Amino acid sequence: MKHNELIIEENEFELLKKIINSPQKKTDNVYKQSVRRLENELKSAKILKNEEMPADIVRINSSITVKIEPNLIRDFKIVFPEKSNITQNKLSILSPMALALYGYSVNDEISWQFPSGINKIKILKVQ
Known about the structure:
alpha/beta; two-stranded parallel sheet
């Protein structure tokens, strides 16, 4: 982990806490696992003001490029649920992929449970 901890902007942190506590989509096991893991990571996350945020941290509205093992490169943008559109590569912050990457930075590698199983992901670029 590049910054040695998960880094989250304070307003997005409050929003994520609300999302985690909302009753929607709680029946899907992969979603529940992703939310639980994010919830645990939020407990030790470093919370910063917007102007203090490093530019390479994955946030809401970040456009990112990732490498999914073994060698699949994907580009997408993390958005609020109502703006998600898979055909436009816009992933909801509530999707397992977005939850997995949120708060991490360029060159971080994450292993995460997806519907297809555990995948290893490396963040190549954040804008």
